[in-house]
Specification:
Elements lengths: L1 H22 L5 H21 L5 H22 L7 H19 L4
Length: 106
């Protein structure tokens, strides 16, 4: 169950990081509210997952999902450049997340 919570927390991190782009410096009400709720929910789920999982693994996976997800959505939704180097490093992030999961123990 901790891994499910951690994955949802990571997806919420993607949501709030992309949401920051739409808050316009927290001057737009509804994007700011949605982003704030996603931040709180993401942190809460991370803290619940960290009760069971090693904190280094939990935090690393959380950040990895968030960073990779934000980069991919930046490319797909925000018209950020999709260079070969960026795609390579996004893949490297995902390999790192899988590696942390695989080496975290039972």
């Amino acid at each position: 169950m901790a891994w499910v919570l951690l994955c949802v927390a990571g997806l919420l991190e993607v949501a709030w990081s992309i949401g920051l782009k739409y808050t316009d410096g927290f001057t737009r009400l509804w994007p700011s509210v949605g982003t704030g709720l996603a931040i709180v929910a993401s942190m809460l789920l991370l803290s619940y997952a960290a009760r069971t999982l090693p904190i280094g693994t939990a935090y690393g996976v959380w950040v990895g999902i968030g960073a990779a997800g934000a980069a991919v959505l930046g490319i797909l939704v925000l018209d950020e450049p999709a260079t070969a180097a960026r795609i390579f490093f996004i893949c490297l992030l995902l390999v790192s997340v899988v590696g942390l999961k695989a080496t975290s123990g039972p």
